[in-house]
Design goal:
Glyco_hydro_5, eight-stranded parallel β-sheet, transmembrane helix, 22 helices, glucan exo-1,3-beta-glucosidase activity, TIM Barrel, mainly alpha, 10 strands, transmembrane
């Protein structure tokens, strides 16, 4: 039928078709032609109901009314008259099926026309409208197709992600391979010497690290950017079309136009801002930028809110003023940071240039003024920073700082002056240095400078008190291990420079001494693999100490206090614990090392300059022969004597009694001349002597030790020449760390070694009950008169007893805290004589009862 037909049915059909056309999203002119073609085909033949994809629709039973969520938005057009429809009155007249996402178009008019034709045939009249069941069937069919399409899209996205992940892994693999290749190439270049030098490459790496970008980081960043770019490119055309369609659905044409205008405006604003002149903060504060530009600049520098746009001119001015003040303060601080260090350096230089007083070496600050006239270039590059470089020394006072690599016995003479003077007398009781000291006829009255060149915890507890028991710092070995090489060197060299000085030897001379025993560890000469000790630095101070003694007419007893492996396992040997000297796996190795140490020492001190001053040469201090094989120690001692004499040492050789007891040495080592037996006498380490009452201790010192000395001096009952190399006036073992770090006391019964066979857990004072260390550890100024008197007489009694032999050396000259072990502190407290020979006590046959004098036996 022609389109302009006046037939009512045709007009009604055309109206339905126009309404369906308006309900769809696509109303193009091409669709009108499709509608006309479909109308022509319906006049020629009948059709079965199909959906928009052409599939046949199977009639379904009439369904219930759709819910509100299923209903489409009603058309604004007026509904048809009720008699003409068989739908529910609640169903909108112009509802249309959902559009197909696979084709991007609504249900085709051809399918709707086919449905219409089918209904007309069934109903027998042309005005029958679309049945609701068929519409719902169409919706279900289209929804199923939409789900299938979405599933296909998801699968495509998944495959695209997998492809992107594969590309990313490939990029990373290639990047890692490239980095590895570059590293290998750089390594080859370095070995071949080609390409950039090591310094250039190091500078390049340092620059990259300062910028926070290593080669690996830059490569990873590049891979990440590439992957992100691929992700952005991976969107399909359908996805972009879908986003565009949704945007058009949710925004009206006017809204889209408004957004486009805003984007154009924002782009123009950014372009204008880029063209603006950027200036610094100080220039803006000086008026070099207008307010708008300043506002923009501050926003760029500080972010949103840095300078709110509603600030007044007064507020901006105030802020500018504050910034000017802050900048001024920073400038002043910068100037001070530069000026102050320069001023300190100049002041230090001026102080070094100024004349130094006699006692300046007692200061904790060294004097290095004698370096001012030395050219640093006179030190060879190979020696710089080492023991031959005076510019690396902490203290150069009284050292010869002229460089020399000369050595004797492999030991450097650097620091020594080429001339010396032995025309010095310590006091009127002894001969001049250049004259002979008649040993055995003249008593030795000497003192140790212990805790100086080898550390002992009770002498310098400050090194150990700063650590907890968990740290296990108990000796010089563990101390230097804890400090590490650099800090250990600086720490111990400061100690060497300040603990014993030039003034120390002058004070020793003034106290009436004629000999000084200088203990040192083998690390003054050499160190071995695994040793943490500060190597050879103490050697320089040992040589300076000998020269200070020479200047005061004091003769030297050279004492090897610590041997390789430790000869007794006590802390003053350097390492507390197992004896590794002549014992254990490395016993023979350490025995030879000790001989090697002596070979160097004896060659060096055989020089003419030491003939008059080093008159006593110690072999090894306190070998613990009660725990070592006696024959092994004796055999080693004979080797040492032979070697030392072969190296031209003419001094008296001193060997220790090894705690065997003086009577056990009768008949031993009798084939050698100029040997001296050294015994160390203390009452506090023997519980039988420790628990004696004060009068009994004094009596033992007057009679017991005197008798021992006389028996040992008689070759029919003892070795012969005997001296006491260590003793003190302490009558308890209460001094901190005297029994090792962290170990208690025998006196109070807290001596816990962790071994039941050696621990002493019962008080050892005379009554064995109420023992206290408070009195012994008190300040000497608080001692009672009776206690001071006893301490004085106990010290003098020991001097008398040991002078029955060749004499004695007190242990020690000074301590940080323990006055009963310091001659210097005891003399100041009045419990030791002002002069070694000035005594007002002489061991009478009957001693005073100190208990009746009011001296507590338990403190």
């Amino acid at each position: 039928m022609p389109r302009d037909s006046d037939d009512p049915d045709d007009r009604d059909r055309r109206r339905r078709e126009r309404r369906a056309s308006r309900a769809g999203e696509d109303s193009s002119h091409d669709r009108d032609h499709i509608r006309d073609d479909n109308r022509e085909r319906r006049r020629r033949r009948g059709h079965r109901a199909t959906d928009s994809s052409g599939a046949l629709l199977t009639p379904q039973p009439r369904a219930a009314q759709p819910s509100d969520s299923e209903r489409e938005t009603p058309s604004p057009r007026k509904p048809r008259a009720a008699p003409r429809t068989r739908r529910s009155s609640t169903t909108p007249r112009d509802s249309t099926p959902s559009t197909s996402r696979s084709s991007g178009a609504p249900l085709s008019l051809d399918a709707i026309a086919k449905l219409d034709r089918s209904h007309q045939k069934k109903a027998g009249w042309s005005g029958y409208d679309y049945d609701e069941d068929y519409l719902k069937e169409v919706r279900r069919k289209e929804e199923r197709l939409e789900r299938e399409r979405l599933k296909a899209v998801r699968e495509e996205k998944k495959r695209e992600r997998e492809r992107s992940e594969g590309r990313r892994r490939a990029y990373e693999s290639e990047a890692a391979a490239e980095v590895k290749t570059k590293k290998e190439r750089r390594e080859r270049d370095r070995r071949k010497g080609g390409g950039a030098t090591d310094d250039e490459r190091a500078k390049k790496r340092a620059s990259a690290e300062r910028k926070g970008h290593t080669d690996d980081e830059r490569q990873k960043k590049k891979v990440f950017i590439d992957v992100e770019r691929d992700k952005r490119k991976s969107h399909t055309d359908n996805e972009r079309e879908e986003r565009r369609r949704k945007y058009e659905e949710t925004h009206t044409p006017s809204e889209r136009a408004e957004r486009r205008a805003k984007r154009v405006e924002e782009k123009q604003r950014r372009t204008e801002q880029k063209k603006r002149r950027l200036v610094s903060g100080p220039l803006a504060e000086e008026g070099g930028v207008d307010d708008d530009e300043y506002q923009y600049m501050m926003e760029k520098r500080g972010g949103a809110g840095s300078v709110p746009s509603d600030y007044t001119e007064e507020e901006l001015a105030r802020r500018k003023k504050i910034k000017r003040i802050l900048i001024g303060v920073l400038a002043i601080l910068l100037v001070l940071a530069i000026v102050i260090p320069v001023a300190v350096m100049m002041s230090k230089k001026n102080n070094n240039d100024a004349p130094k007083s006699e006692g300046a070496s007692n200061s904790n600050s060294p004097s290095n003024g004698n370096l001012n006239n030395v050219d640093p270039n006179s030190i060879p590059d190979s020696a710089k920073g080492g023991i031959l470089d005076p510019f690396s020394w902490y203290d150069t006072d009284d050292f010869n700082v002229t460089y020399t690599a000369a050595a004797v016995g492999g030991l450097p003479i650097m620091g020594l002056n080429s001339t010396w003077n032995d025309d010095v007398q310590a006091n009127e009781k002894v001969p001049n240095l250049k004259d002979t000291f008649e040993y055995g006829k003249m008593p030795i009255r000497g003192v140790n400078v212990g805790g100086w060149l080898n550390i002992e915890p009770f002498i310098t507890p400050s090194f150990f008190e700063q650590y907890s028991t968990r740290d296990g710092i108990v000796d010089e070995y563990t101390l230097t291990t804890k400090l590490g090489p650099t800090k250990a060197k600086s720490t111990l060299e400061k100690h060497y420079a300040s603990f014993v000085t030039k003034q120390t030897f002058a004070d020793i001379r003034a106290a009436g001494f004629d000999h000084v025993r200088i203990p040192f560890g083998y690390w003054a000469v050499a160190t071995y693999n695994g040793d943490p000790y500060v190597s050879q630095v103490s050697w320089r101070y040992l040589l300076r100490g000998i020269e200070y003694a020479r200047q005061n007419g004091l003769r030297i007893n050279l004492d090897l206090h610590g041997a390789p492996g430790s000869q007794n396992g006590w802390n003053h040997s350097g390492r507390q614990g197992v004896i590794g000297w002549l014992n254990g796996t490395d016993g023979d190795l350490n025995a030879q090392r000790t001989l090697d140490i002596h070979h160097q020492l004896s060659q060096f001190f055989a020089q003419p300059r030491y003939k008059n001053i080093i008159t006593l040469y110690g072999i090894v201090n306190e070998p613990r022969m009660v725990d070592l094989n006696t024959d092994t120690v004796l055999a080693w001692t004979q080797k040492a004597i032979t070697q030392i004499r072969k190296d031209n040492i003419t001094a008296i050789l001193v060997f220790g009694d090894g705690f065997l007891g003086l009577d056990k040495w009768q008949g031993k080592l009798t084939t050698y001349d100029n040997l001296l037996l050294d015994v160390h006498q203390y009452v506090i380490f023997n519980v039988d002597q420790l628990s004696l009452k004060h009068t009994d201790k004094l009596n033992f010192a007057c009679k017991g030790w005197t008798a021992q000395s006389k028996r040992s001096m008689d070759k029919t009952t003892g070795f012969g020449p005997t001296m006491c190399g260590e003793w003190s006036q302490a009558d308890t073992d209460c001094t901190e760390y005297i029994n090792n770090v962290g170990i208690g006391t025998r006196w109070e019964g807290t001596f816990d070694t962790g071994n039941t066979s050696t621990s002493i857990l019962k008080p050892q004072c005379p009554d064995g009950k109420s023992c206290s260390c408070d009195g012994a550890n008190a300040d000497p100024a608080k001692y009672s008169d009776a206690y001071k008197k006893w301490l004085y007489q106990f010290a003098v009694a020991q001097m008398i007893s040991f002078e029955a032999g060749w004499g004695w050396f007190y242990w020690t000259w000074q301590t940080e805290k323990a006055p009963q072990w310091s001659w210097k502190a005891g003399m100041q407290a009045g419990i030791l004589p002002g002069k070694t020979w000035d005594r007002d006590f002489d061991c009478p046959s009957v001693l005073e009862d100190y208990g009746k004098l009011g001296l507590p036996e338990t403190y």
